[in-house]
Write a structure and sequence with these properties.
Six copies of one chain form a homohexamer. With 288 residues, the first copy, chain A, is α/β, with parallel strands linked by helices. Chain A has nine helices and ten strands. An eight-stranded parallel sheet of chain A has the order 4-1-5-10-9-6-7-8, with helices on both faces. The first copy, chain A, has a two-stranded antiparallel sheet with strand order 2-3. The interface between A and B is medium-sized, with 26 and 26 residues.
């Protein structure tokens, strides 16, 4: 058929580049098996793919347009519920494949534990990788309910192969006393707020050290972002967060993720709208 | 990349055939512009595509499996809200393209008005086409709120090019006095119930006349199928409807549709689950 | 019967003046036929009428009370779904009737396209009419999905009979690149924020030029106002908006509207509460 | 103004007769102050008024049309929360006013306790009044949480002025052991089912004794009618109930009510649709 | 304090016996880590505990009362998300403790996989244990997404230590072709319906063989029981299921469970109400 | 049994002290019988008890931990719906019992009227008691819908036994003209905002006068706290409120309450999360 109007399968932001043409690859990781409180992030990628239809590709904040980027939407990985170790293996192998093809990964979660695999893959290619970590929770436990692999200790696990002082945490307002003490003693730790993030990371622009940004969306205040597993009141609103993220332009991004969108707790859809908008802005910031 | 686990974009029932290989083509029509009561069927195709993931491909009722059918999922048509005439044109042209390529169409709505375009396209290829119409509403108005094109008069419009006695209606339990009088006088009209449908249509198996089945899902009782624009209590449950549909095997189906799934009114997802199951069973019945 | 306690039909804010006694006429326009993303504003007027029961008539912000205003609640117009042209005609004729009776209109939407008809009617009576436009979206497309009449280009259509520089836009944060360029070049355009609106419009108090204010409620941040068709994160909260609206007292208002409340996406009712409160404050500001 | 299209305030089923012209008067009683489990029936009348818009006035079951009945929608009574005694007084006085004007009352609840006042008023005008009682619950407690006035003992209170054997109960499937014993010993008691109701009450057609029917909508199975305060699984579906209600035509109805619709638990709207349909059918049965 | 009115913590059905006095022990297992489609059964026990408040302790079906049973509510087990093996270990050890204390276990799930641990513990004490299995799904896979431990193969795993012909399955209507073939060849398999269950198991009353009943609540039709992870339309309604369960009185029950209630998909609460009612009836049937 | 993993009944924040050991006693008051707009606060205590599971016991704001406090969770009082007078009696007697045992009460509502009983009990023990009152509404009516006992006049009733100038009100933004006049004339009244509360109450730290704090949670903006009966837009967000509450440390608290959480309007759970977090912070502030 050769018609003007043909049916189409929805893609993130309408991205239409093939894998081979693309510089960046977006993929979804619908997985929430270790979520301890309210599950549902497994539905995050699907919801964002559909809702990104309601988003303009043009950013008036940056005066740039997504149509100018070469991005491929690969779809969603199928990960085995109830076996986090194997899920992480599958994800790490896939991410390494993307990197070997000289493309940069953008992951849409899914629970935060998954960031472990993506960052591990990246740290093998980029040994001097540094991590920007936005979150409401420390994620620094040494174990959680007796388990080593959990959304509640993903950053602690990452700190085993990225030196803690290369982990730059912002917005954190919940955790154990021990976690706060560890963070304050060892990491580049900016609790309670995201204000001043741009400034605090300015020096990383000069060094052009490779950067991965992991955005646990629950860093946003629950009024702005109710749709997440463990809402923690007292965070920044979207304007505060967006202003700081725009300040990161110029960093040498080699990948990033948006994690913990949980559509079942997002009846009104405002969390998904916020996530989709942040995806657009981060892509325009990161691709540079 | 050549990995075992690769991300995938969701398709109806996981159908993976390309357009060229397929005998049947499924497409979505996310459109509800003339819906008078509760809009939302525009989200029907997307929801069914995602939720069909939860459905087994094997039917224990028919002891047959969808994996044995050659079906292509073409995605969703983009139709202009606020202009039903142009929407119908786009849909009719697309359907004709499918038919010209010697494939049979399966439409996932979307509002019932759209059936007008699909049936019109089919009736040009199959001049002796007959229509099986399952619905809670007569859809036989001559106008609705002053408009000729409306979900409330789609069957009346079809009756202008398919003789009313070739329209076989079942399950109808709501309408104007005039509509019931018209139906009783002119059509093959079986109000209130779907019981006996299989038997009543048995003669069409011998003649092998081409058949289009339009399933307005609101024919089901709202307890089974709350997710629709105008719920009309007092309909059959799924077991009653399914039993009758299985009895249609052997008819010469040239196309069919499932219309009026409205996910915003289906919080629990049971309507979508019912629609997906009926899609599987109808495919296995129709493809024969 | 002559009893103390008699049943009553709910009216906006309990307004009890007859049409003939009233200076201002409120009416609902339950219509969302061109809504492209999430329909539902058709339920806006009904919801606001009911929920305004929960609102005090006294404004502590202005130290004034609605009971001192002569307002009539006319009910809701019935507009034909699927035919925007005729809907606009019906609305324009009705608005002209209100104006001919020397009353001022207050419209409760419904989708933003409807503002076209009301403003057109007003501009015939008040040729020097100026427009205050609060919105998250530019609404300046020249067409949308091939259609000329759409919520996405209502301001562009209005700019054909009100000079663009007489259109004062605030809060806009989403649109095409071309729309932002048009707005910046031709209109009195204040994107991203509503801050300073009172000040920016101060000169209109002296000239006492007739003013219509169209409030697309999605100008509010989705955290405050989730219940709308296309939520756009990053807007003002209620305190910011209210402070600016209070600053408009003294302008020569000849009508206003509150559009795009969509109750199906407002489970918690906070959007409706915000809309009802803004209706009260705007009435007290506008009637003066 | 003298226009074709004018705004209108919604009324039950679009009833447009004035009070003076009408034979029957519908009024709402938004009250649920003694509800012990899940409150929300206070929103019942408003929801039914709005949703009855989606209902045809023609009943294909009875081949009759509501437009042929003289019914007035009086609106909703305002009853004081937290003071059941005074609420009952206000309601009883209003009902007596309706009866004195030679009109018959139709009440839309609200909680079932309110039936006490309406039946009391009627029993004063009709000393030989008999009661048809459809319910999932016995409502025969002598007190509830220490209170004499409660939705849980309304029938027991009525049995103090209508002899128990003149109370015909159907569908009941929940209560205390003592309540079932009282009912079995003293009333015309048909637990678990509504089947055979028409037949069991046939003799009342001959005597033409005045009848009040109180329909606690929770008699329906929760699958059909989830929107109620105390859902009790195991009841009839709508077809079963409707068939029995149609069999009551010919009784001398002097009033009836539909109680316990609780919209907050009716996300999908199917309960409201069922209630509106039953209102239509009962009106056509009762007015005769 | 020695007051009449003291605060109380909610318990299942208000059970107030201490562990030592009780013959039966109810406990919750809030766990859904291998759930593949829609998680949420982790909230089942908590919801049932609260909602059982709305349930009478008296069963008019059996003319018996829960207050006459010695039951202890032990609360909920905390099980580690993401590690099914350890979760099963903890549960099995706890169940063995209950059995050693000569009490019988009643488990409220949680996902169906957990039944594996409870049945395993029971089979060690009762080597001739037989299993009654009510379900919509076969649960007979040999693996699921590569995992051995999954809700989708719990019955297959049980069949490794209870001979398949001692597993009596009813109501199943979804699965793979291989699963249906295995079931038909090896088990006491009654697909599609629960009708006749009482009769089919009559012989087990004579032998007084020890019986465990596992009730996957999704065996009910989704209209009756929407609140579950994988709704499968076409099942029995509550009256059908209840009638069959009542027919099981006289069997030698040594334990039972109610699994797969998922409150997030049960907005209206009707699933929880059904589950609570079935718990009451099963207790009265089982305790005998 | 003597196992590591035993089931447990959920308690507020996991508090495990017995009544006798405790210094503070938390109890729930599930009651909303006089609520005039949207009922549902009766579900507040149960929801908070469950959701407090998701909250860390450690406060990074105060660097203190709940595990160091001696708090007993007594459960919920059962109060008779429809009889506010008796409900208040039961509550006052219970509170006096707590005080006589030299423990301090923490009440989780339930509607605001209940504060009347608790404060009355406290004022008998502490004749110089002063009240800190955070609210969106004045609650100063002399009657409401003809009733003296109502959530809308609780503070007026309290002002009959605590001198108005000892009532310190913050955040109020809704009420009648007369209420605002009464408050301004007689009370320590700080409308519209909570800013500066800490400072304004600084002098009470020196005098160490006994303080009861009543937190009507609707003082928060509905974006932060949608789950309440009468949402009033324009309030503080959580960060603003929390900062002021932290400033109250050092006051001589003898009790406090958190009222008006209404879970049915809190689909996303963010209101419950905010309430639980405020409970933790207030406990750590009050216990000192």
């Amino acid at each position: 058929m050769n018609l003007e109007h043909l049916p189409q399968i929805p893609r993130f932001c309408g991205f239409s580049y093939d894998y081979d043409e693309a510089d960046w690859v977006i993929f979804g990781t619908p997985y929430d098996s270790t979520t301890s409180f309210r599950p549902g992030t497994r539905f995050g990628p699907e919801r964002m793919r559909v809702e990104s239809w309601g988003l303009e590709s043009y950013s008036p904040y940056q005066d740039r347009d997504l149509v100018d980027l070469k991005v491929h939407d690969a779809g969603d990985l199928e990960l085995p519920f109830g076996n986090p170790e194997r899920a992480l293996d599958i994800l790490e192998i896939y991410t390494m494949g993307v990197l070997e093809d000289d493309k940069q990964p953008v992951m849409i979660g899914g629970e935060h534990l998954l960031t472990l695999a993506t960052v591990h893959a990246l740290s093998r290619k980029y040994p001097d990788l540094e991590l920007i970590h936005l979150d409401a929770h420390t994620d620094l436990r040494t174990e959680y309910l007796g388990e080593r692999l959990s959304h509640a200790n993903v950053i602690r696990l990452i700190s085993e192969f990225i030196e803690p002082q290369k982990i730059h945490s912002f917005g954190i307002r919940s955790g154990l006393k021990e976690e706060f003490e560890f963070a304050r003693a060892n990491m580049d730790f900016h609790p309670f707020s995201v204000k001043g993030m741009g400034k605090a990371l300015e020096h990383l622009k000069e060094s052009q050290v490779p950067i991965y940004l992991t955005l646990d969306l629950d860093v946003l205040d629950p009024s702005v972002f109710p749709g997440t597993g463990t809402p923690e009141p007292g965070g920044p609103d979207l304007r505060e967060l967006l202003a700081e993220l725009l300040g990161l332009r110029g960093l040498n991004f080699v990948g990033f993720d948006l994690m913990e969108l949980s559509p079942p707790w997002d009846e009104s859809g405002i969390s998904t709208a916020a996530a989709a908008k942040l995806l657009r802005e981060l892509l325009l910031v990161a691709v540079g």
